[in-house]
Each structure stands twice: as C-alpha cells, then as structure tokens.
Amino acid sequence: MSATAQIGVTGLAVMGRNLARNFARNGFTVAVHNRTESRTEALVEEFGGEGSFVAAHSPEEFVRALERPRRLVVMVKAGEPTDAVIQEFAPLLDEGDVIIDGGNAHFEDTRRREKELRERGIHFVGAGISGGEEGALNGPSIMPGGSAESYESLGPMLERIAAKAEDGTPCTAHIGPDGAGHFVKMVHNGIEYADMQLIAEAYDLLRAVAGYSPAKIAETFRGWNTGRLDSYLIEITAEVLAHTDAATGRPFVDIVQDRAEQKGTGRWTVQIALDLGVPVSGIAEAVFARSLSGHTDLREAARDLAGPTVTPLGESEAAAFADRVEQALYASKIVSYTQGFHQIRAGSEAYDWDIDLGAVASIWRAGCIIRAAFLDRIRAAYDAQPGLLSLLSDKQFAEEIGAAQDDWRAVVAEAVRQGVPTPGFAAALSYYDGLRADRLPAALTQGQRDFFGAHTYRRSDREGSFHTLWGGDRSEVEAG
Question: Is the pTM of this model over 0.90?
Fold first, then answer.
C-alpha cells in the first residue's frame, strides 16, 4: 500500500467515524482503521462517496498508508484502551510523526504520554474535541495541546475541519504544551455542568414558583435565546421542554426518570480545582446536584422532612418573576465562566503552559456544547486586558451583573422561602458576595486553626508569622 493519506483515524465508533468523514469532506485523503474490520468496511461502503478513504486492515497497513510526517488520530475510550493503542502503533512510527488523542483523556495521562513519546521522537497531541457526534461531522471546537512543532503540521488540517465562528475564525488554536488541550477541555466540561444545572434550576423555578407548563417554559426559553442568553444549551432546552412523549401524550420531561448521570469530567474539574486551590463552587454544586439526584433511596427516606409547600404566583406576579429568573440565570452564568477561566489561568501558571484566555474564549464560540453569544465579549475582554484576573473585573460584565443583582437576590430569596433548591444560583451569588466583601470570616477560621493546631497566623498590622500561646496569659510569639 502506497502512502497516500494525509491523516488517519483509528477507532471508528460514532465520534471517530464522523471525524474521519469530516476530514474526507474537507478534501483530505483519510486512512481508516478499526480493530473490528467490519466497521472499517462499513464506513467506506456507506460514506465512500463523501471523499477519499483508504481502508486499512492492520496497524502496519494503516501506518504504511500515511504520508510523512504521519498524523494518526486515536478515537478510543480513555484510559487503558488509549494506552493499548499507543503501545500498538508507536513502534511502527518514525521520529517526527504525530499521534493525536481525540478522546476525553485526563490531562495528567496526556502529560505522561506526551513525555514518554517525546523521548522516542514522536509528537503526542492531546486534543479536546467538543460538539458531540454532530460536531465531529460538521465542525467541532478543537483544543489541541502538544508541541508547537506538532501544531505546524496538524494545525492547518484542524482549522479546515473545525467549526467557524460568525467572523469566520476557525474554532481551534494551539492551547499549549503537553496536557494543556485536555485540561482546557476538562474545564469546558465543568462549565458545561454548571451551565446545565443553572438552566435546570431556572426551569424548576418557572415551573414550581411561576406555575408555568413545560410548553410555556419552552416558549420563555426561546425568547431568552434571542437575547443575551443566546446559546446552544438554551436552544436545546427549549426543544426538550417543547417535546411531547408519543406514547403517553405527556410532556417528555415528565416521563424521564428524575436522576442525572455523569461521565466524570465534571468531577475531574472539581478535583483539580481543589488541588490548585481555585474556588469553582458553581461547578462543584452542579456535580453534587447530579450526585444527589441519583441517591433515590436517600431522597425517598427524607421525603417527609418539614418544609414549605410551593405556592405558585399569580399570573402577573409570575411574569415579573420570570424576568427576575432571567437576570439570575445570566448573572450566575457569568460567575460560572469566571470560575472556569480562573481555573484555566491557575492551571496555566502551575504547569507553565502560557494559555491565551482570549483564544480559549474564541474557540468556544462555535462547535462546542457551551457555545454562546457572550463568549465573543469574553474573548474581547481578555484580548483587551490579557492580565485580567476575573471577568467580574471587566467593566461591562461588572455593570451587567451589578444591574442584575437585586433580581438575582430576590430569586434566591424566593426559592428559599418556597423551599425550591437552587444550589447553583445560591453558590454563584455567594461567590459574588465573597469577592466583594471587605473582610471574610477567614480571620476567625485561622484563629481556630492556631488554637487547636498551632498553625500560626499573619497579622493585619505588621509583617511576620505569629502564634498565640492559648493557655495561661495567652501571650503572642513570633513564629518566624
């Protein structure tokens, strides 16, 4: 077999198959391979008319089909399956060739793999790909890490197949070395968790407190999607809420079990945020809300706990309340993105990645699950102020969230009064108030730590580290 393919894809489940088709549709000859040969043959037979494919039936045949430098995309399950594929193909490659992992890998695994392969002269690119099977086919948001040299070879191809923002910019860019791409994809998914939780809370409030039907809430969401909340998740939420179950005639949302599952990337985001010391309370509450929903036995045992019964508002009051919920949702979403970008900045500093936050916002503008109109403004904010510590420090976002805060507080207060859980809204508001507080109660916490563990403290009136001898006269000593 002669080397005719510019890129190859191994692993032809839905995402791999669609990504291979995307490359072929964009003019590249694509070598395709799958451990189960019938899947390879099925792809070529069904979609061969979309472009040029080379079916390979063995790793050796697959590698021989690739032009130098070879570019090999791995689309298999994260973890051990990915390691197995790398171990199978790496010995067949030469110095300068590139392996691209397009799965949802943990960024630490990507760092390990990149280091091991770099020592063998092979480039390893951990590429976060967002957009699901539709995005893989028609244009995803792609977040590649790895060496700058690997992006010189791979980047133009990714830019061709990636989603395009309204200004025509491809939704991909070199994120940074080793695991930077998968780290950014991890945070993307964490923001996705938070965004979905906030939207779910808005739905719950509109249904319970405003008394709206799912169809009415779908109409409300469609209206919101024409304004500043314009986003993919708001758009599909309206579709889900408007859907009627064919078997029962009931709203679709009422026949789905009341429990949300998760694949783990949200948990990773929270775990790494803890390691970095970055508060991502909105993402954490979204993860915990899904966990709580799954503990059906625990919820059933607590069903009779005391608390208020929700009393829906009157029609005019409900309309005004819906407007306040829109304000609360928008403000809380800004906080979620603020926390996510803070985590990316912290990760970039910890791992020396030098990530361009404006570029991250830019490549999330289309193709990905959290694509939203206001990402263009986030990009502009970071482009104008590369050292911006927080989106809430940007003048425009600060003004908007300031204008929303009274309604935001009213919504959270009404939720508490009526007994409707809003962990996302409440956590976002608490984070906002925590940032703006002159003093937090952390001084007392540190005092407690010094009392029981001699952990020392710093004074507000002079330099140094101190410890109080809490027995006897409670004298203070300088701890060095």
Answer: yes
